[in-house]
Design goal:
mainly alpha; 487 residues; 23 helices
Length: 487
């Protein structure tokens, strides 16, 4: 480790990372301090006058609902309806954290299938309405939570609105592309208002149950040798089964594992219930094996990179043990090591250059260079909307390159700033914790978020609504610990 730390490459990378963090820290301080000149300047813009005006109207509407609701016969303090709603309020937040199971039920249960394409939009609207009226029956003094991450997210949405007006050759495609990028991000604002210290454990247990189900179901699929399409593996490989559970895609199942394995792993030590600690303990190995049996190389590397970066930042002495553990894993599982090392063979690069990621990435760069600042337009490249409208021949297999092609340098930089500053804020939350239990809980979230952040570089993870909801939901969960630590 000493030799690595003293090397020129290590020092250059370290200096670059410190420089990025310094610049992003300055940006974050400017946009998060509500009394700063930057906020005053932004408020002078017409768009932000509209946004802050809407927020003020929301607060005014909440005050009106509070006064009228609490004086009504239905919502008077101590009434049956209020008592029932307080009970329900603890569990409402579980709706987005069970997106996978609700969506699967909507698609597979015949009477519900007619709502499968609209249930998530209806749920989002209803949840916004619930949050707006929630202050009528909540027991504690209720305040709308709004911080630096919320503001940066609004800036990112504002960039999308601007690009919608600047680059929209076909407005219907642009609107559909805008919806694909931004609609499910809005769940963050809802979930932020619904998480509090008395229901955080329910969210963690929901993640544990989800991870346990997917892990053991993946092992079942591997045991029975579930059939898969032939194009899921290269013709030169000997793999016969890639697990996909109820999700239908090995790569997205792997992304769920990348996000949830660290959270469930932390729950082994943090959950109050011994039964859920035991469930976490037996689920983590099943989830790790499930991740390996997806044979999703990008997910393996993403989780390994997230764990490595976390330990470098917080516990650098453990990195050498992590390397040893990964080495033992590769030695003991030949199919895993063969598939991983196939990435570095001439055969892989030759085939990838003909019809794989290499040629797709080259095509994405060409599309970006054609319109470098604002891109081809939302919904016009590299994703589900573009392929549906026959505007692109394939998925580009990189959410960041897809964004670069659609939204140009402006869109990609705004996205990367949002993600990087958000992750830096979650890192600050870890440092702010005085309790080891809370620190471990937020650390598990941080590692999972970091893994998905890495995986998006080589996979269109955020093309899947469920992943966007889970990602931003866990960010909201992590930020709730910051509010607790400041009390």
């Amino acid at each position: 480790m000493t030799a690595i730390r003293n090397s020129l490459i290590y020092r250059l990378i370290g200096a670059g990372i410190r420089g990025i963090y310094y610049l992003l820290g300055l940006l974050y301080e400017q946009v998060s301090a509500k009394k700063s000149e930057s906020i005053k300047w932004l408020r002078s813009g017409a768009f932000f006058k509209l946004i802050f005006g809407l927020l003020n109207r929301v607060h005014a509407l909440q005050d009106l609902l509070n006064r009228s609701g609490r004086n009504s016969a239905i919502f008077r303090r101590g009434g049956l309806v209020v008592m029932m709603m307080r009970k329900v309020d603890r569990y409402v937040v579980l709706i987005p954290f069970n997106f996978l199971f609700i969506d699967y039920g909507m698609r597979t249960i015949t009477p519900l299938a007619r709502f499968s394409s609209v249930w998530d939009e209806l749920a989002l609207l209803l949840m916004f309405g619930y949050v707006l009226t929630r202050s009528i029956w909540v027991d504690e003094e209720y305040h709308w939570r709004f911080g630096g991450v919320d503001f940066l997210l609004m800036l990112f949405i504002a960039v999308g609105v601007g690009l919608l007006g600047i680059v929209s050759p076909e407005m219907n495609v642009a609107v559909e592309g805008f919806r694909a990028v931004y609609q499910y991000v809005l769940w963050f604002f809802v979930i932020r208002q619904l998480i509090h210290s008395s229901n955080r454990h329910l969210i963690f247990r929901s993640v544990i149950v989800t991870g346990a189900f997917l892990g053991f179901h993946s092992l079942y699929q591997m045991a029975v040798g579930v059939q898969m399409p032939g194009n899921w593996v290269d013709s030169t490989e000997t793999i016969t089964t890639r697990v996909f559970s109820i999700i239908g895609s090995p790569n997205i199942l792997a992304a769920v594992f990348v996000l949830t394995i660290p959270v469930v792993g932390a729950s082994v030590f943090t959950d109050d219930s011994k039964w859920f600690r035991m469930l976490s303990l037996v689920s983590v190995p099943a989830m790790i094996l499930g991740l390996l049996f997806t044979y999703s190389r990008q997910s393996w590397l993403a989780l390994a990179g997230a764990l490595g970066l976390f330990f470098v930042l917080f516990y650098p002495k453990i990195v050498k043990y992590l390397i040893v553990a990964l080495g033992l894993l590769l030695v003991s599982m030949k199919s895993v090591s063969d598939r991983l090392f196939y990435l570095f063979t001439p055969e892989y690069f030759a085939k990838s250059a003909r019809g794989g990621r290499v040629i797709r990435y080259q095509y994405a760069i060409d599309q970006w260079l054609d319109k470098p600042w604002f891109g081809q337009g939302l919904g016009r490249f590299g994703g589900a909307v573009a392929t549906h409208h026959d505007l692109t021949p394939f998925y580009v297999d990189s959410y960041y390159l897809k964004t670069l092609g659609e939204m140009g340098a402006v869109g990609l930089m705004s996205m990367l700033v949002l993600f990087t500053v958000t992750l830096a804020e979650v890192k600050r939350v870890i440092h702010a914790q005085k309790s080891l239990i809370d620190m471990l809980a937020v650390s598990g979230i941080f590692i999972g978020l970091l893994g998905v952040f890495f995986q998006n570089a080589v996979e269109n993870v955020f093309e899947v609504p469920m992943m966007v909801v889970y990602f931003w939901g866990l960010i909201a969960l992590a930020l709730s610990y910051r509010e607790t630590s400041l009390k």
